[in-house]
Predict the 3D structure of the following.
Amino acid sequence: MTMYRNSLFALACVLLMWLVAGCKTKQVSQKPTDQPAAYTVNQVLTEQPTFATLHISKMSVVATYGTQQLSFRATVKLLTDSLLVLSVQPVAGIEMFRVEFTPSQFVVVDKWNRRYTENSYDFLRYKLGVDLRFDVLQNIVSNRLFLLEKTDISAADFTVENLAGAPTQLLHLASGLIQQFEVVEPAAIAKASVVAEQGRLTCEYAGHRVQNGVRFPNAFSMTLQAAGRVMTLACTVEKMEFNKPLEYVPQNLSRYEKVNFSKIIP
């Protein structure tokens, strides 16, 4: 049971690495964007959270995988365009797992068993068929628009659906892939979905409030449906701050064993 719990904690840590598990995509031309639609997309791009640093120092997480469920504490540190760190602390603030993402690589540290794995994003493309970049992970965490096959985003990348009594929908089509964003007042992203042949990813954001001049959700969840299985992370933010000096000390790995990715995540 302990081994299973450790594996689930590790899976929770690295869900962000494969929750966008789609094949490499190529862009499909969008329909010409009319002026009202362009205004809607540009409004979202303008109003979405923008900050230099984010520190979520207190967060409750419930991880569900199949019939199993675990609750634990976690923290998040984000230095925009440079560093994203997720720390899992199951018991009394004791860190069990850490995942460190930079633009060029990611490191998963299993502190419980004193081992780690270090890989570039090319490894995920080879191992899992995931064309994943740092900026995609960053934007998912930051409640921002993201596209899997490109970094620059404009109104021309989306079609807009406005149905009476329903939230505004932004749609983006790529080869074998659909991305959809649900927008609520005031131009905040409430849901982001990625649908591909391999499965479906849904991110939901709620409780948007302004702190340090940044409108940000205090609750969000991520659900991955793939290969007949479902994994969900439901997160409740209890304490966070923006644009404050971010202190981060990289883990000293000199006394840790370097192992293959599959040793930590089977």
